[in-house]
Design a protein that fits this description.
single chain, Non-ribosomal Peptide Synthetase Peptidyl Carrier Protein, Chain A, 4 helices
Amino acid sequence: MVKEQLKKIMASVFMTDVREIQDDISQLNFEKWESLQHLILIVNIESEFGVGFEPEEILEMTSLMSVEQFLIKKLPQ
């Protein structure tokens, strides 16, 4: 469920179809994932889920998998 929400946010930020957002998407293999879009992505995730990330965490959030892992840690159990 979290992953699907993240994919929708990514599709919106990267101005692409959600079908282009694969499970293995990362900054290395998706050219639309540039620095400005990365910051917009983080702001949108923080807003959507009501969480906040530390600068060190944001730097490590370079793939869908890593974004999901950091987000799950922030969400109430």
